[in-house]
Amino acid sequence: MNLTKLESGAYIIDIEKIEDERGFFARMWDKNIFKELGLDSDLIQGNISYNKKKGTLRGFHFQKEPNREGKIVRCTKGRVFEVLLDIRKESPTYLKWTSVELSEENHRSVFVPKGFALAFQTLEDNSEIYYLMTEKYVPNSSDGIRWNDPKLKIDWPMKPTVISEKDKSWGFL
What we know:
- The protein is mainly β.
- The chain contains 2 helices and 13 strands, in the order ββββαβββββββββα.
- The protein has a single domain, classed as Jelly Rolls (Sandwich), CATH 2.60.120.
- The chain has helices at 31-36, 165-169, and strands spanning 2-5, 11-14, 18-20, 23-25, 45-51, 57-63, 71-77, 79-86, 97-103, 109-112, 116-122, 127-133, 142-144.
């Protein structure tokens, strides 16, 4: 696997395929490599987000202290526009965002350190995201930021087709 460090400290994970007549095999996570890079390598929970409609928008979501969580995010079906927002006040990239397209075709993942809020928009119907988490979900720590906060100036790929009432209700920065 190849890890590409982003300015924010997140990493894009590209697999190295070992191919034969059956298809391919690839590694998308390695605890020792993550430890060598100083990344949180204790994954304790896996989650799936299934989205029926193209244009569905979820986020921005995060957990507050003491339950901040790191994540590895991969699109296992369909295609999504994933947005990582740095909400670490001490960070030089505080309130800056970056995006990455994740799809079943590109097999790309992204490692998101603790202290980020995440949002995504589906680019195809029936898109599915798989998350590996460094913390368990704690409902009382759950928080969010409005997806269309004018301070962020995010250029979403399309007008959202589906947004939950909860995501519509998050406050602005």
